[in-house]
Design a protein that fits this description.
single chain; 241 residues; alpha+beta; seven-stranded mixed sheet; three-stranded antiparallel sheet; 6 helices
């Protein structure tokens, strides 16, 4: 497993800056809308401006002077010393270059400087690349399965599907959660390797995967099992706590 506390290599010309002006906020909102298939409601400029101005985490990923990604998080209740990462996205042509990890590492350092101990966020359990990144690269812990968490969403990524999500917690000062040994794994929940293509080409099959994964998760969690890792071939790995 990659050490999430290690400083990732930032490509030349790429930097992260706070979104401090109205123009920067609108540019970041446009980028996030493009990443989410044209959904301008995912992070509208007025809300992004309010979050940034009130001291929350709101940054742009820049290639020179062009915004090519953004990340937004907000504080939880003060006693929890926690922050919830609401949205992070990078333009398609800048993906698969490690920039998501660069953003997450910046978010981790920003949170540490403000005495935040945990960062939480949600992701679609059917998206294999996100499961790999969150569980294998960052070493987060799955804390909850949320059924249809956001209700219907009318963007190019989620349109026509229910919005089941996994809530993960990143303990910033703790070592990453290690992938369990084979003899510790008592159950698995497989997911498709490319749900995005399946949704476009075989929507009925994609919908069946949603129900299959939901039933598997809820059943194993009801038995008292916990998710302890992710394997690219077997899917989510469950162990006895």
């Amino acid at each position: 497993m990659t050490d999430p506390s290690a400083e990732p290599v930032t490509p030349p010309g790429i930097e992260i800056r706070p979104l401090t002006t109205v123009e920067e906020v609108f540019a970041a909102s446009e980028v996030l809308a493009e990443v989410w298939g044209g959904d301008r409601g995912g992070m509208p400029p007025n809300l992004l401006r309010a979050l940034a101005h009130s001291g929350n985490y709101a940054v742009g990923l820049y290639d020179g002077e062009r915004v090519v990604g953004a990340s937004v998080a907000f504080f939880a209740a003060p006693a929890e010393r926690s922050m919830h990462s609401h949205i992070t996205g990078v333009l398609p042509q800048y993906q698969s270059q490690g920039l998501g990890r660069v953003l997450k590492q910046h978010q981790r350092a920003w949170a540490f400087a403000r005495e935040v101990g945990h960062i939480t966020w949600t992701f679609d359990p059917l998206v294999a690349r996100n499961a790999h990144f969150n569980l294998r690269v960052l070493g987060t812990r799955v804390t909850e399965y949320l059924v249809n968490q956001y209700g219907p969403m009318d963007d190019g990524v989620n349109r026509g599907d229910e919005t089941d999500r996994l809530l993960v917690t990143w303990a910033l000062a703790a070592p990453p959660v290690a992938t369990p040994a084979d003899d510790e794994v008592v159950a698995t929940v497989a997911i498709p390797h490319d749900i995005e293509t399946l949704r476009r080409e075989e929507p009925t099959d994609a919908a069946a995967w949603r129900l299959r994964v939901r039933e598997g998760f809820l059943g194993h969690l009801a038995e008292g099992l916990v998710v302890e890792g992710f394997d690219d071939e077997r899917g989510y790995l469950f162990v006895r706590p």
